Amino acid sequence: MRIAHRWAAACLLGMLPVAAGAKPIAFARGTTVMAEYGAGTMNELQLYYAPRYWYSVGGGLLELKSEDGSKRRDVAYLRGNLLAKRWNLPNAQANVFAWGGLGTARGNDFDGTVLDRNVGFQGDFETRRVYASLQSDLHESSRYSHRIDTAQLGWAPYAHDYDSLATWIVLQGRHYTGGLFEGTETALLVRFFKGGTWVEFGATTDGKLQAMAMFNF
Amino acid sequence: MKLVKAMLFAALVAVSSMASAKTIEMDVNGLVCAFCAQGIEKTLKGFPETAGVFVSLEHRIVAVQLKDGVDINDAALTKAITDAGYKLVAIRRTDETLDAIRSRVSQQKAIPAVDPSKHKHTMGDMGGHD
Which contiguous run of DSSP H or E holds residue A215? Predict the structure, then answer.
């Protein structure tokens, strides 16, 4: 498991200069690959396939590390994502996603493997100039409970079109429960996307790298 | 008899107009990002009648250039856009090529949120996931 996670982390690091993630469902009959390096506290790799525009199935690898290094979780999970509600407006779109899954987890403060249960939701609103999202992701087992709450506010300096590069400035706040990180981890990010490729990177107020990549095809 | 002839003539004109349309232009709600456009483009390119697809996020339009002598009916278009997760607002058939539409919209400012005069017919509450 740890070797797999190290391999995944190496892939993430290799992707950072060009890469980074967002919605768990991009479009019908589409595959989404997402990778995130979350300031050393959270690293995640996800792969989903969406048979329809309103659901996708897949899985991921999640690595959680506490700020002081005393706790570490390595989780491998399978997950289903549901687009519970979408509002298609003339110049905007809003979505509510929910997901749930099961996996296995190992930790450095307990022996063996435990069953990991995962649930979460995301609400977002976007125009071509403004983006806002709120996400909560809970991983729970008999040995731990970690919830990662993430809020993002984005602003685009210009309105992009399909054939042009989209550029966003994003302010992110993230809160961890379960003794991973005290307080709220704040990051300022720059996001680019064009076609099916999305890259996002920046730094937290502690100067740690935060990056994410998503590819849809 | 005159009425029957008039109806036949009108039907022939309508069919001829549909058959000669080169491009279908649709107004779609919810088009705000490249991923939206990517999904719709992929769906519409799956029609055997499709010669090309153009998406403008700024003008909220999706245009499908048709192969010679064929058409895609409104029900199929509605299903395609709805199944892609977006809301179809209006459909127009024109003789413009995709390049002409691309050129036209590049010279226009973004359309306002409501522009009924632009619509040949509106699709009302025909669907979408909202």
Answer: strand A209-216
